[in-house]
Prior knowledge:
Elements: H1 3-51, H2 56-65, E1 67-71, E2 77-83, E3 95-103, E4 106-119, E5 122-131, H3 133-181, H4 199-248, H5 255-285, E6 293-296, H6 297-307, H7 309-314, E7 318-323, E8 328-331, H8 333-349, E9 356-363, E10 367-374, H9 381-386, H10 405-415, E11 419-425, E12 429-437
Parallel strand pairs: 7-9
Antiparallel strand pairs: 1-2, 2-5, 3-4, 4-5, 6-8, 9-10, 10-12, 11-12
Helix pairs in contact: 1-3, 3-4, 4-5, 5-10, 6-8, 8-10
Amino acid sequence: MKLQLKLALYNTITKIAIIAVLAFFILIFMNSISVNHIQQRLIDKKNKLVSNLSDMEINDLLTHQKTFTDYNILKEEYIILKQAENVDTLGKKESFSQEEREIEGNTQEYQILTEKFVFEDRKYQLEIGETMAAVEQLEHTILYFTLFILIVSVGLSLIADFAFTRFLLAPFYRIIDQKLNKVDDPMHYDYEPVKTSTQDFRELDASINSLMAKIADIFLIEKQFIANVSHELLTPISILNTRLENLLNDEQLSREGENKLFASLKTLNRLKAIINSLLLISRVENNQFSKTDEISIIKMITEVHEELEDRLTDMNLSFGMNLSEDFIFTGNKSLIHILLMNLINNAIKYNRQQGSIQISGKKNDEQFELIISDTGLGMKTEEIEKAFSRFEKLQSEKKDSYGLGLAIVRSIAAFHQIKIDIKSDIDKGTRVHLYFSL
């Protein structure tokens, strides 16, 4: 998961938690506040009622009916005034309770104020109730409103945080793209600082610039080393090769001496081939080749086939090329020739007598796929995994191999951004897939 998305999710989850906790406490305190509000309203109504008891009409009701009851049409409030029977609690402060009352067959829960008092030498009990339905409705309204605010806040927070983190991390992604992804050669590295107001990104940019400067120095040293190796090793080998060939022309040389000289020449040539292969890999990996040639796959395969035709004939191998259309791309012609030469040469080397080699290709919207198939010995899974390692020999107990052919193929393929994949079955053959980007 990207840092940008992680930051956005973290901020969103944090806000959800804060809103949820606040909503929980709001609901708790809302109930207490609502009850206190209702109780204060009941006290105000009680005071108003008691202050109006001198009214003639109320006085007559109290005198003749002994009880006065009143409630509104919705039965949300009621008032009961009756003569008190228990005189022990007179003069005490009003009390509150939350109980159920039935009015005309309708039972509801009420917040009730009860008070006993004396009026005109008579003892009365006043009970004023207000339904709790309003409080519950208010709590439900607040709950739904809180949930709505929570959902809206989550959506807006996620959008806002994602946009802000995208803006905040934009210099970081520019550093990754310009200073790492687009750098193929440390000698052409752009040391221009990426514009940003974030100190952390400035330090990251400066650290990468410093690291690339060190890599460029190492790169130059390696190039110099390769040049020195080419001269210091290949030149003495060439001198030794010439001297050994001259010794072979000596008529007085014995048969045993000739055999030893031939063995020495063979070893010398093997050493020369290994050095040349290693130097080639190093030069390719250090981008010391240009990629300006226009290359035709069909033409290149045809050239390789012509060069290897004698070997195909020796093993009585059939060679087929099934390409519905040509693929032309820009690269280094000599390196692509080496790549195809090594792959087709391996298909011959590890094939069977009277076997076959098939080369096919197909193009889609994104890439061109070239497949080189043979009917050879095949490879085990662990051999496929090690196939591109240097000096890793495949079936070398039967064939003359240095173990560098596929290592060279891998380096040339990487240099041209060609993806390579090997699929093989024991005793059935091997298929090498090359994927060229369009």
